Each structure stands twice: as structure tokens, then as C-alpha cells.
Amino acid sequence: MSHASQPIALVWHRTDLRLSDNAAVAAAAESARGQVAGIYVLPADPLEPARLGRGRFASPLDFPRASLRRTGFLLQAMEELRDEWHARGSALEVAQGDAGQRIAACARELGAREVHTAPCLAHDERQENSAVACALAPHGITLVVHDETTMIAASDSPFAIDELPDVFSSFRRAVEKGCSVRAPVAEPQVVSLPEALRRGARKRSDDVLAAPAFAAARKAASLVDARAPFACHGGRSHGLARIRRWFWETDRIARYKESRDGLVGPDFSSRLSPWLALGTLSPREVAAEIARYERERVSNESTYWLRFELLWRDYFHFWVRRWQGRAFKATGVLGRTPCGAQDCEAFARWREGRTGEPFVDAGMVELAATGQLSNRARQNVASWLARTAGVDWRLGAAWFESQLIDFDVGPNWGNWQYVAGVGNDPRNRTFDVRAQAERYDPDGRYRDLWGP
């Protein structure tokens, strides 16, 4: 990007791929009187095996932190965000490589004095913040970090982060008693930037995204398995369309509590988690839509339950901030139990759907084929790996991170600790997968659909 006549503020997008209800975008626009642009930095080699995983967990296995499909889903979301920035007269630069170097170079060319960002403040994200702040400081540029990834704002929570309750129920009761959900923040006015700047940003971004790895990722994300009941596109418009269908056209939200443990079909759950994970939708936007539905249609246990699950998401976002590197340690956040074995052979059987347990294998085949998996199936496949097979739970968590298009750092790693019995609540959560199959898949439909 070339230098503009007035100082421009830069927004470093991560898991906030939207312009509406985005604290970083709003603050940047206010600071620079509407002269604001965006940047997203892709890794130098997006498909390089991630031997060093989160919290410096050294995996013995070779698979990327984000699969081709998950990378393609991200690109879909980012392409739509690029179009949104462009339609408003600004630009989103897509860069690749070291985040500190790329953001510092872009900010210097813009003449930006501030870079705004709003990630989940987990261990790796904090480390990256520090590195980028250090890269910006010699140039007199400030990194401004916003805390806006949850439905309940962190500043509104009744608990300081280091006082977060060890169990969700204590958190939920306090929040439901004393907190309200803020209204979504309106999208700010953006001042048009010079055409040469916009054209240059698009050209450089197009060059980055033309790489063969990204072409392969787009193809992987566009392929839909014939067995899949629900195809998902990363763009914000698709998330908004899903809300319209599931809330207003089919009224499925009003029956959610009864259907939420489903396994087959497109509408047993909201399926909004992929858009929430990338931040193309915000949790406050979803909460506002729930409230509108309750005013205009019906308020019942099912509408409450969707809000309840957004609170679970909040809890895990705060949880991963509280525990930082300990959220990724073998012995869990409280160090209560030893780690399982790094049994690569047992892990491979699980990963490939060859455990011999039809319910578990069906789940792993579905995950590999679609990048999606229901909550009920996730609990069962995770329990089998960590509890039945006795494999290091972190291998499973890292595989989910690689494969799931709705990967969200706190909910993923927090739920794996819960299942493995090394989290805040160490109860035995060993699932009898055969009994679970009989209860939730009594006619064998799911096992027949995804079985070998």
C-alpha cells in the first residue's frame, strides 16, 4: 500500500472477519476519522506440518495446523471480507509470512500510527501480539488490542480472568443473574482511500492468493461429499442466510432443545459455529437475533438453550485466557492426572476410522470427509481416543484443530481436557460408545451413512 495524505489506522484481522460489530474496526475508524484499511497475514507455508503445536506442545505427528479444507473455508470468508472493504472504498491487504514484518511494512507504507486487532487472547495469540508489537515499536506504531470475542464483554463479567470459576455452572449462574448482552456495534463510516492504494493492495493480495497451495485449498473447500447433509461456505453472507433459514424460515430454533443431539440431517442444530469461529458472525449478533425471535415468535427452553451454548463458548474463551500455556499441557490446567501415551498406531486407527467401533469410526469418517462433526459425535470419538485407547488427548485436540472448519481454540482444547479428565472438572467422562450408539442412533442410520 502506498502512503495516503492523512494518517490511516490499520486493522489486523484474525478471527474477526467482519466489519459489523467489530471493536477493532470501530476503534480504528474513530481514531483515524474513517481512514482505515485492513490486513490479514497468512503463514509462509500454510500446509507445513505443525510439529510444534499450541503452547509449545511437541507433536510426534506430521499434519498441518489447518487442513486444505479448513484453509479453503478461511479463504472463502476472507474473499468476501475483501469485497466488503473494497465496496466501502477501502482495501484489505492479504499478506504472507512473518506477521510482525508484514504488518510493520504495511503500516509504514500507509503512514499508520496505530494497528488494531481483536483476537481470542490465548497463549499463542498473546505471543504473536508481543512479536508484532515489538516489530512496530521502532517505527513509532502502537498495537492496540481489543477484547471483544465473547457474547458477554470481558469487562462486564462478574469475574476477573484469574478468578474465573473452575466449573461452568458457577460462571453461568453469576452471569445470568448480573450481566446483560451489549447491543452489536454499528459498522463505522469508512472514508474512501486513493484508487492507486486500493488497486495496489488488490494486486498484491491476488498475487499471494494465486499460490498453488491456496488454489488447492479453495478446491478442497468447494467439494461436497454426497453423504454430507449440510454444505458450508465461509462468507459472512452465508452465515446470515443460515440464521434466516434456521430461525425465521423453518423455526427450528424453537425445537432446538429436543433436536440438539441429532446426528443426521441439516437442521438438528444451528450450525452457526463455523462462522462464529472465524468471526464472520459475532456472538452478540446471534444473541440479538435470538432476542428478536423471542419477542416476535416464541421464547421457550430451546431459544434459551442456544443462548446457553453461547455462554459455554464465552466460558471457554475466558478459560483459555486464564490458563494460557497450561491449557495445552498434558496434565491439564490443574495437573491432576498423567498424560496418555503418544501411541501413533492407535491414533492412526482413530484418525482413519479404523477402530472397530462403528459409532466412533462413522464420526471420524464424517470429520475427514466434511470438516464437520456434531457435538454428540465429538464427545464419543474424543472419549474413545483419550479414555478407551489411552492416547495423549493433545493429539486428538490437535487433529480436531487441523480438520474442523469450526475450530475455536478455547472450546476445542477446553472440551478435550474435560473429556480426558484433566480439566477443571475431573469427573470420569468415559463414554460407552455402544450404549451411546443405541441411544442416539437406534436405527443405525448414522453408522450406515458414514460407516466403512
Structural features, described:
There is one protein chain. The chain has 452 residues and is mainly alpha-helical. Among the domains are: 9-148 and 196-209, 3-Layer(aba) Sandwich (Rossmann fold); 329-450, DNA Cyclobutane Dipyrimidine Photolyase, subunit A, domain 3 (Orthogonal Bundle), CATH 1.10.579.10. The chain has helices at residues 23-31, 68-87, 99-110, 123-136, 168-178, 195-209, 212-222, 236-249, 256-259, 273-278, 283-296, 301-323, 344-351, 358-370, 375-388, 393-403, 409-420, 433-440, 445-450; strands at 9-12, 36-42, 92-96, 114-117, 142-145. A five-stranded parallel beta sheet has the order 3-2-1-4-5, sandwiched between helices. Helix 12 (301-323) crosses helix 17 (409-420). 48% of the residues are buried. The model has no long low-confidence stretch (mean pLDDT 94).
Per-chain topology:
Elements: E1 9-12, H1 23-31, E2 36-42, H2 68-87, E3 92-96, H3 99-110, E4 114-117, H4 123-136, E5 142-145, H5 168-178, H6 195-209, H7 212-222, H8 236-249, H9 256-259, H10 273-278, H11 283-296, H12 301-323, H13 344-351, H14 358-370, H15 375-388, H16 393-403, H17 409-420, H18 433-440, H19 445-450
Parallel strand pairs: 1-2, 1-4, 2-3, 4-5
